[in-house]
Design brief:
Blueprint (H helix, E strand, L loop, with lengths): L1 E2 L5 H12 L4 E8 L2 E8 L1 E5 L2 E9 L3 H8 L2 E6 L7 E10 L3 H14 L4 H4 L4 E14 L7 E4 L3
Antiparallel strand pairs: 1-9, 2-3, 2-6, 4-5, 5-8, 6-7, 7-8, 8-9
C-alpha cells in the first residue's frame, strides 16, 4: 500500500475506511462493447489483509452482472452531492457464486447498508466483492487529499 498522506499506512487505511463508512450507496462504473455503464449500488466497506474490499450485490443476468463477468475492472464514486467532499476509486470485481458465502456476504452488506435488505433477498441476487486497487478521499477543497494504492 502506498499513500501520499503524511500518515503511516495503517492510519491512512483506517481514515479511508472511516470515510467510506459514511456512505452506503455508490455509483459503480463498468464498460463493455455496449459502452460505459453506471449503476447505483448499495455497498459495505471491509478491511482485508492487503487493503480494502467492498461488498455489493447484483441481479444475475442484469447488465451490471454481465459486464462484471466480461470485464471485472470497475470504478466507483461516493458523494453527498458536494463538489468539495467525495471518494473515488477503482478495483477488480469478483461475482461470488458459492451459496455458503452468499448468505454471509448478504448479511455483511445489510449490516452496513440497511436499505439493501429488501434488495438482497431475491434468489437471483448475487454478491460481488471488489478488491480496491486505488482510492482517493477528498474531504475539503483546500485540504490534503488521501490517495491510497493497494498491491494486488
Amino acid at each position: 500500500m502506498t499513500s501520499n498522506a503524511v500518515q503511516d499506512g495503517d492510519v491512512a487505511l483506517e481514515r479511508a475506511l472511516w470515510a467510506l463508512r459514511a456512505y452506503d450507496t455508490m455509483a459503480l462504473a463498468t464498460t463493455s462493447e455496449a459502452g460505459p455503464h453506471v449503476a447505483g449500488v448499495f455497498f459495505a466497506p471491509e478491511r482485508i489483509e492487503r487493503g480494502i474490499r467492498l461488498v455489493i450485490a447484483t441481479r444475475g443476468g442484469s447488465r451490471l452482472h454481465r459486464e462484471l463477468e466480461a470485464d471485472p475492472r470497475v470504478a466507483f464514486m461516493c458523494s453527498p452531492g458536494n463538489a468539495t467532499r467525495w471518494i473515488q476509486g477503482g478495483g477488480t470485481a469478483s461475482v461470488v457464486v458459492d451459496p455458503g458465502r452468499r448468505m454471509d456476504l448478504a448479511r455483511r452488506l445489510t449490516e452496513h447498508a440497511a436499505g439493501a435488505e429488501a434488495y438482497v433477498e431475491g434468489p437471483e441476487v448475487l454478491p460481488v466483492t471488489i478488491a480496491v486497487g486505488w482510492l482517493k478521499v477528498v474531504e475539503a477543497r483546500d485540504g490534503a487529499h488521501l490517495l491510497l494504492r493497494f498491491d494486488p
